[in-house]
């Protein structure tokens, strides 16, 4: 993904959401003004919707499936942890880098 959220796909993948990078590309289309191509929405508003079971804004061909475990994990993150994850999405990070950070955090919680 380009723009202010280049690491969103890696973060979604790090959160173990199948097709995280593809979802990020689709979200990039949704958050931009059609005429000026400027970012006018926060993709994390859509991610929150996904964790609340609403994927109506995505193409049905994506078949996004977020498990109850993933939802529970997301809901158990503190606001600080969620802000950090969102901050990661603003960095040019790859899937492996995000996986290290998220896996380390999950181990701390257990």
Account of the protein in words:
- This protein has 110 residues and is mainly alpha-helical.
- The chain has one domain (8-103).
- Helices cover 55% and strands 0% of the residues.
- The protein contains 6 helices and no strands.
- It is globular and about 45 Å long.
- The chain starts with 7 loop residues before the first helix and ends with a helix.
- The mean pLDDT is 91.
Outline the fold blueprint:
Layout: H1 8-14, H2 20-30, H3 43-51, H4 68-76, H5 79-88, H6 95-109
Helix pairs in contact: 1-2, 1-6
Write a brief structural summary:
By secondary structure, the chain is mainly alpha-helical. The chain contains six helices and no strands. The model has no long low-confidence stretch (mean pLDDT 91).
In this structure, how is the largest beta sheet organized?
Answer: none
Number of individual domains: 1
Rg over CA atoms, rounded to whole Å, is 13 Å
Structural class by secondary-structure content: mainly alpha
Element-level helix/strand string:
HHHHHH
Q: Are there runs of 5+ residues with pLDDT below 50, and where?
A: none
Q: Name the average pLDDT.
A: 91
What's the β-strand tally?
Answer: 0
Provide the β-strand percentage band. Answer: under 5%
The shape, in one word, is globular
N-end to C-end Cα span: 32 Å
């Amino acid at each position: 993904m380009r723009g202010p959220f280049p690491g969103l796909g890696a973060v979604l993948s790090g959160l173990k959401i199948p097709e995280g990078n593809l979802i990020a590309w689709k979200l990039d289309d949704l958050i931009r003004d059609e005429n000026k191509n400027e970012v006018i929405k926060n993709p994390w508003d859509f991610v929150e919707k996904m964790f609340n079971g609403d994927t109506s804004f995505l193409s049905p061909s994506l078949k996004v499936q977020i498990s109850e475990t993933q939802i529970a994990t997301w809901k158990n993150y503190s606001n600080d942890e969620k802000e950090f994850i969102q901050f990661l999405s603003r960095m040019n990070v790859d899937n492996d880098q995000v996986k290290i950070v998220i896996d380390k955090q999950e181990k701390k919680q257990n």
